[in-house]
Each structure stands twice: as structure tokens, then as C-alpha cells.
Amino acid sequence: MADGKPTLLGKAAVIESLPEHPAVKALGDLITDAKFDRGELTLTVAKDSIIEALKAVKAAGYNAFQDMTAVDWYPSTPRFQLSYHIQSHSLKELLRLRVVLDEEDAVIESITHVWEGANYYEREVFDLFGIRFEGHPNLRRILMPDEWTGHPLRKDYPVEGYR
Amino acid sequence: MAELDLGTPILEAPVAEGAKDQHMVLNMGPQHPSTHGVLRLVLEIDGEIVVRLYPEIGYLHTGIEKTCEAKFYQQVVPMTDRVDYLGPMANNLCYCLAVEKLLELEIPDKAQWVRVLLTELTRLNSHLIWLGTHAMDIGALTVFLYTFREREEILRIFEMVAGQRMMTSYFRIGGLSMEPPLGMYDRIRTFLSTFNEKIDEYSNLLTGNPIFVNRLKNIGHLSKEDAIALAVTGPVARASGIDFDLRRDMPYSSYEKFQFKVPVSDGCDVWARYVVRLEEMRESVKIINQALDGMPEGHFKADAPKIVLPDREVMKTQMEALIHHFKIITEGFAVPAGEVYQQIESGHGSMGYYVVSDGTAKPYRVHMRYPGLASLQALETMCKGRLLADVVAVIGSIDIVLGEIDR
Predict the structure, then answer these.
(1) Using 50, 70 and 90 to split pLDDT, how confident is the model at B26?
(2) Strand B365-369 and strand B350-357: pairing?
(3) Facing B340 at nearest CB: one of A38, A69, A128
(4) Which domains does chain A have, with CATH numbers?
(5) How far apart are CA B107 and CA A117, in angstroms?
(6) Residue A6 carries which DSSP code?
(7) Is a pLDDT exceeding 70 seen at residue B8?
(8) What is the pLDDT of residue B152?
(9) So what's the ipTM on this one?
(10) How many other C-beta atoms can be found within 10 angstroms of the C-beta atom of residue B315?
(11) Which of A59, A154, B93, B378 has the most crowded Cβ, counting Cβ within 10 A?
């Protein structure tokens, strides 16, 4: 219970308790799962509707792209989770949009035409996790050398390199 | 010795057929002095005009995020110091706040206020280095010596507080690592009593200096829309007219109890960034003074024996404390599963730590969002179509630290 706010798990509980929340209202049926935990709202959307979802929250006042990264849940499936953090300057709030991806199909549409600033963040996720972004203007490795093999932040990549 | 035949001087360089419209690709860095570390820029230039600019980064990549996954939660704190090595306390604060949010741990007021106090000193430290190196890039060498004089005193205060000048690791999960030392407040007060005059001194050297003004004004234009689209935050965004400061708008660590102004400018150029940062230093002085005047009494760390290490004397005299100490050091402490995103306003902009826990004693994933990466993305927008010489001024104005970009 952060700041006295109860934890809400599941889509139904979140929609019931926060029906007036601008992001919940904007996304509506696009939400597949939801969570309100430690004062932070996480909304899960389907992989195919990420662009639609981002455009909807952008119109609802979440104007600034803050951060984007991935989490590797290896060996459980679906393996990858993408977390988009979107800031609202007017609502003074941060929203997390979550998308899950299967290992075999670790491809998602690039959001660079919604927020240009996602460019380097997507390149970073591509470099360190090996998730591909369709429609990205320049999907190359960013932190690792160009000729590197493997994606270091995957959980099956050892911390001290291959032995 | 035969005399060298230098030939007739070429008055006009011969241009090959069809080469008139060709662009030259110029490599700047990674050892260029104005790139503040190891930034490499690939520039495509048409004469002196920048056509394209492409930052090539990763030279300082050490895989800190991966290393964090192999450490206990408390062992990550010293690693955060090394990310943005000019703002160690801000890194510590952001990470500790994130883990405390995961643990839902209450921090005593005194620890929160000392954190504010030292984070603002860190901001001064970071801005002083920016001012010195930025002016030096432009050619005003003197300012560097002045700002490093003050920075030295801040580092001495850090040494007094944490025993370390740069890699402080003073903030710990649950509070501070130890009681602030005797005489610290007085020393900070003495330092601050003359600091506003020192800012005037820098301002006297630069603000009225026509060379400096001409190198900065109307250079590196970044509109408000571009700044938001490119995820730019902090002083660079505020110099483009975005009135947003996490300390005021989404307060953390008791910032809501402090009164300060957020300097904003509509200039959108390098000059506006200079003005905003100078003004920010004055506001930081105000915050530190308020923290010194209103410092609450109390304990410097939370009462959570299974998470926070016991005091040394208690540990040596009480069996239970010794067991807790042993357990925390050898096994760490389990953090309930969940994910949090904590953001703070660091010297460069909005810093964010995304910590995912799977319920064990080691973080499952630590992602660090540092403002430098977004500012670097905006570099091309700021430099395109302008003179090559301005690139140096613009890099200085976004206050780049490669440690935080490459991680």
C-alpha cells in the first residue's frame, strides 16, 4: 500500500476502481490486463495495438515519451516484456504500457513515428535483447560493437561472457 | 640542400567535375577534447555547413545493467555512482528511492532532508563542471579555473560526509550510510555564504562578454515541439519553454516542503540553456539554505532491521543485531516481486530507474534512463544546417556525460 492506495490486480479491478482515469478511459477495450501497484498504473495491451494505444494515450494528455525498455522472463513464456513509460506534463503522472512478446516472434512495430525520441531506446533494446522493430529508420547496434554476436541483456547470456 | 619547389600558390582550389555538390564526411572524436569523454560524431559537411550529424556511442559501455542483475540490492548502490560520475548522489538517490518504493519502506524525515541537501550540492557540482568546460570549449579558459575552485570545496564536503570525493555511495537503501559528520552543516553554510557572489563572478566573466554571447545566441535551436518529441528533459527542455521540473511537479524525498522557482526560458538556443542553468544554481542555493535551516531531528535511517544494517556499536553488543548484519551481508534481503519506475530531476534532466523484482535478493532487471541519451538524439536537430564550429558550442550546452549515455 503505497501512499495508502490499495493494490489492484487484473483488468476488471482496475476499470472498476479507476473508471475516470484518463489513460484507462482512452484505451478502453484495448486493455488486455491491468495492474495498479505501489502507486503506479500498468496497462497491458496487445502487440498489434501498441501504435493505436500510444496514439490514444497521447491524445489523452500523456504527451512526452519518457523511457522504453525490455525485460527477459526466460525460461517462462511469453519470454519478453516491453515497458513503455509515458509522461504527462499536464496530469503530472507517469503511465506504463506493457506488451508481451514471444521469443519466436520477437518483432514489434516501431513507435518512432509517434515519438521520434524512441529511436535510440528501440536501438538499445534491439542491441541488448534482440527484439526487432519494424519501420525503425536505423535499426543498428548502438552500445555494443557492430560485429558483436549475441544480445547481452538476455537472461541466457552469462554475466561474465561465454566460457 | 636543394631549395624546395613550392610551386605557384593555388588561389582557387581545383574542383573536379561533378564534385561541387559532394559532401565531405568528417570524423570528430572519440578523442576530440570538446566531446567530453569518448563521443564520436560522424559529420557530413557541405563546406562549413553541417548536413548530417550522426553520434556513434558505446565506447564507455560497461554493461552496468547486466552486472546489477548479479548483485544483491545493496551492492548495486556503489555501481550507480559510476554511471553519471559527475552527480554521484543523484544516482544513489534515484536507485535507493526505487528500491524503497518496491519495499514500501518509510524513510525518516532527517534522512530525506539530508538527501535533498546533498543532491542539491551534487547539482551545483554538476553545473559547475558544465559551466567550466562549456566556457572552455568556447575559448574562455579562465572560467574553468574559477568553477573548479568552488567544485573542489564541494568535493571536500563530499569527502567529509562519505569519505570519498567522487564515488560517494552515501545514500543507502533505507536512509544514509552513517550520521552526517559534526561540522558538516557549518561547512556547507560557510561555502554557501559566498556562493551567490561566485555565480555573479562567473556571470561577470561571461554574460557581458561579446565573444561568448555571439558564440551562444541563436545557436543550436531546439523548438518546444522537437524537445518533447525527442524526449529531451531537464535544463535543455526548460530552455525550450517546457515548464516541467520533477522536483516541483512530481515531488520525491520531501521536495514538496521546499520553496523554489523553476527557471524557464523561451530562447530555445544555447544561450537560453546557459541562462537557465545559472539561474538553477541560484535556486539550488535557496533549497540548500532551507534544508539547513529546517533540518529535522531524528534518526538517519529507517527502522527496518532486516533491510538496514545495524549501527556498529549495536552490532558489536547485541546478538540479534549481529545476526541481522550477517544475514544482510551474506544473503542480502528479499524484495517483494513487482516493478517500479522512479524518476528524479538530476543535474542533466530526468533520471529514471526501472527496477523489476522477482522476489529474490537480487534485482531481476535494473534499467537506467539517463537524460544524456535523449539530449544526444536531439543533437542533429540542433546542429543541422548550421556551422561546423557551432557543433562544439551545442555539445557543451547539452551537458554531456558519456558515462551515463553508454552505461
Answers:
(1) confident
(2) antiparallel
(3) A38
(4) 8-107 (3.30.460.80)
(5) 35
(6) P
(7) no
(8) 92
(9) 0.90
(10) 17
(11) B93
pLDDT in tens, A123-161: 999 999 989 998 888 888 888 888 888 888 888 888 875
The SS3 call for residue A21 is coil
Which of these, B383, B392, B346, B396, lies nearest to B87 by C-alpha position?
B346
Whether A41 contacts A18, CB under 8 Å = yes
Task: Return d(Cα B229, Cα B61) in angstroms, integer.
Answer: 26
The H-assigned helical ranges of chain A are 11-17, 22-27, 50-59, 119-129
3-state secondary structure of A132: strand
Please state, in angstroms and rounded to a whole number, the distance separating the CA atoms of residues A70 and A83.
6
Q: What is the pLDDT of residue A99?
A: 92
- Say if CB B160 and CB B182 are below 8 A apart: no
Chain A: residue whose CA lies nearest to B354: A69
B339 to A83: CB separation less than 8 angstroms, yes or no: yes
**Rounded mean pLDDT of chain B?**
87
Inter-chain contact A143–B58, Cβ cutoff 8 Å?
yes
Q: Judging by beta carbons within 10 Å of its beta carbon (0-12, 13-18, 19+), is residue B304 exposed, middle or buried?
A: middle
Query: Of the candidates A92, A116, A117, which has its C-beta nearest B250's C-beta?
Result: A92
Give the minimum alpha-carbon distance from A28 to chain B in angstroms, rounded to a whole number.
Answer: 23
Q: Residue A136 is which amino acid?
A: H
| Contact residues for A152 (Cβ-Cβ < 8 A; gap 6+) | A128, A144, B63, B66
Sheet holding B338-345, edge to edge: B338-345, B350-357, B365-369
**Sign of the CA dihedral B198, B202, B207, B209?**
positive
pLDDT of residue A2: 44
Tens digit of each residue's pLDDT (9 = 90 or more) over A65-86 = 989 999 998 888 888 999 999 9
Q: pTM here? A: 0.89
Residues B302-318 have a mean pLDDT of 88
Q: Taking a C-beta distance cutoff of 8 angstroms, is the pair B115, B257 a contact?
A: no
Distance between A48 CA and the closest CA of chain B, angstroms: 23
Q: What is the DSSP letter of A110?
A: -
Torsions phi, psi of B144, nearest 5?
A: -55, -45
Cell 543541422 -> residue:
B384
Which grid coordinates belong to A145? 560493437
Residue B339, classified by CB atoms within 10 Å of its CB into exposed (0-12), middle (13-18) or buried (19+), is buried
Asked if the Cβ–Cβ distance from A117 to B377 is below 8 Å, we say: yes
